[in-house]
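Why should sequence recovery work at all? Because a backbone constrains its sequence more than one might expect. Tight turns favour small or flexible residues, buried strands favour hydrophobic ones, and helices have their own preferences. The token representation captures these environments compactly. In the example below, the structure is given first.
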């Protein structure tokens, strides 16, 4: 499963990059606003920093303007993924981007039918929002399972990018559900490494090793 970082904070991205385990980045208008930076500058910097798909979202709501915006965003770097909302206009734009060979991430997906349409439009990625469905009392992870089944039924190439993930349980469940990728808040990514038994076990091993008086180097 590809692991993307859900942030436009380049300092944090540089730190996460050190692990060698970050495969891409997702942003949205809220994330760009939070960065306090010019969108083109920050996306360019992220594209240079991280070798992988970098999602940058259009702001228009009509297909012709989305297409112009998307083409401008895609010109930033070859690893830009044009992110479009899951609307009729967004999917019209997705078809056009697909025809041009540009990568797309269809976002704000909350149902199997929406995911089916995104795949038919030729989306590279579809982003089902797990956490926001959970927030409404629905079962967000079930949507990942259901989309997986539908995409497998019809051999769609669109990759399922589990989004709006909030914690490590979400990440593990998305992997079990067969998501192709997951986008993670930085803290959730860091939490993936942790287990109390790892800490406890290492403490014992180090104490016992010290008793031997040996040195490997
Ligand atoms: C990423 O593509 C999404 O925009 C993001 O995961 C949404 O997360 P949120 O629901 O926590 O805002």
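From this structural description, the recovered sequence reads:
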């Amino acid at each position: 499963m590809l692991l993307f970082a859900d942030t436009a904070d380049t300092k944090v991205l540089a730190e996460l990059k050190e692990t060698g385990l970050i495969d891409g980045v997702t942003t949205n208008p809220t994330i760009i606003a939070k960065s306090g930076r010019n969108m083109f500058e920050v996306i360019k910097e992220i594209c240079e920093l991280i070798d992988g798909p970098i999602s940058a979202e259009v702001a228009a709501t009509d297909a012709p303007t989305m297409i112009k915006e998307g083409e401008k965003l895609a010109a930033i770097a070859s690893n830009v993924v044009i992110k479009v909302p899951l609307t009729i206009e967004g999917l019209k734009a997705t078809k056009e981007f697909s025809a041009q060979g540009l990568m797309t991430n269809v976002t704000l997906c909350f149902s199997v039918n929406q995911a089916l349409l995104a795949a038919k439009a030729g989306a590279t990625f579809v982003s089902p929002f797990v956490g926001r469905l959970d927030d409404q009392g629905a079962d967000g992870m079930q949507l990942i399972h259901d989309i997986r089944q539908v995409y497998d039924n019809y051999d769609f190439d669109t990759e399922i990018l589990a989004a709006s993930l909030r914690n490590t349980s979400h990440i593990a469940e998305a992997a079990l559900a067969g998501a192709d990728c997951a986008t993670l808040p930085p803290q959730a990514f860091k939490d993936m490494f942790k287990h109390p038994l790892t800490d406890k076990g290492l403490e014992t091993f180090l104490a016992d090793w010290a008793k031997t008086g040996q040195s490997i180097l």
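A few observations help interpret the result. The radius of gyration is 19 Å.
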